[in-house]
Amino acid sequence: MAVTGFLTDSTLCIGCKACEVACKEWNDVPDDGFVWSGLSYDNTLALGHSTYRHVKFVEREPKAGCGGNASEQLTWEFSSDVCKHCENAGCLEACPTGSIVRTEFGSVFVQPDICNGCGYCVVSCPFGVVDRRPEDGRAFKCTFCYDRQKAGAEPACAKACPTGSILFGRLDDLERAADRRIAQLHASGMTDATIWNPKETSVGGTHAFFLVRGDVRAYNLPPKPEVPTTLLKQSWSAAAVAAGAMAGLSLMAFLYSSNSRRGAK
Amino acid sequence: MKSHIPETRLDEIRNQAALGQLDAKGVRPPGSPFPETNSYYGLPIVKPPVWTWEIPLYFFAGGAAGASSVIALTAQMTGASKSLVRDARWIAAIGAAVSGPLLILDLGRPERFLNMLRVFKPQSPMSVGAWTLTAFGTASAGAVIAELLRMKRAGDAAAFIAALSGLVMATYTGVLIGATAIPVWSRHARSLPIHFGASALASATALLVLRGHDEPALNVLGLAAAAFETYMGIEIESCDDIESEPLRKGPTGLTTRIGGFFSGPLPLALRLLGIRSKRARRAAAASALLGSLLTRVAWIEAGKASARDPLPHLQ
Hints:
The structure holds two protein chains of two kinds. Chain A is of the alpha+beta class. Chain A has helices at about 20-25, 90-95, 120-125, 145-150, 155-160, 170-185, 230-265; strands at about 5-10, 55-60, 75-80, 100, 110, 130, 140, 165-170, 195, 210-215. Chain B has two domains: about 50-180, Up-down Bundle (Formate dehydrogenase/DMSO reductase fold); about 185-310. The mean pLDDT of chain B is about 95.
């Protein structure tokens, strides 16, 4: 099976939220509240246990060629966020039940019939994607439409996207397509267009990657994400030191005790 | 009638609206600053831990039980009083018996707790912990049951296994929260296992002192743990990075400081000043016990506060 991926191109996104709707309907994801956030047109706010696609509405200083063209108007950029399906996935490493697995499509999948809702994947995801659904008790996140991909279909969000902002395909094809698109954008003057795909970090790259303009931090995309497993070595070493100290100290304390007892006799 | 705009401005807006050319867009009135670009509206990047009260209580009970099994074995090896060894074994067994239900209660699907034993994943501290608790619970229960049945050799063997797994029980919880994406926890991934180990040793010692045991060894262990916790408090106070902010600011900072005071300086002073007073030693034990529990609560709550801040991830 070929490794598949998502390329989400924010320069083509019109903020219609069709991906959010399509995902909710196809995956039968429950409603997670109607709130008016007051933050641009974003009332979804974040990915979560009941949101697998989330369109961000980024408002920034005026920039020629994007958003409002008047020098006084701020730019308005949209980007549809999704589970990154990391090459080294923190949630997958952390899962104690083996519920979270790597599929034949290279995606990271939570098996709902295994998950017992321990919550350890929630604190192990460097992107805040997976979460426990309170009324259900299990952890949920983007399935990368595993059921649809099994049947040879593209994920619901990609199919519903009206502008080609969400591209689905073979990961290596998408990476080449992203390079071509960046060259095209740079040639037309959008020199701040960049690809966010943390290949140089311990995450080792993601299967869902993003084309955005300007500072990636405005999209809450961490510039240098790290998978928590990199901390295991130093932390377990400290635990070994602590265990050794506890055993040694306890033994010495009781030896001292028994010597003083013998001395008293 | 006072206003910051003249009445004529309303006519102007009306005329512009009629032409479909309103110059003041709702998203940004003229003159207002452009939005900050260093994060997405300051919204969190990682998700807060979903763990509730069961988890800090489990860290406390499991830690005390683990350290108690180590005390039981070392006390037995050096020929300490039989009642001390028996009590330490009982504390380990009861602590383990409480730990299991606490962990199961915290699951989103408690009836599936056995799925924890479906696989063994050394790269997952949660998996290592589940297997360690299984081994520790079995061994520590075996040690006291064998003693009741007067099977000394079986009891000793079980107590030995309990002490080995107890060393992991007392320290692994530091790895469990340290090796995560929560900034305040991962920042302290190297010190948390030692911190929690010292806290576990302090609480096990305290429980034995409060049971009425007064071996000099217990005082030495209590003193050492209190000294380390005092050092840990100073280390936390001197961390001025943004990751450690929840340990110094807000309600979580207050809980950390109160927990630290009851774990470190107070029992240290009580044990040093009252080296000849049994009452002071008992007071030190009570303080250390309370400090140990508060410290675990503080760390979990600090993790929740830490998850709300996107900035550590955007550096």
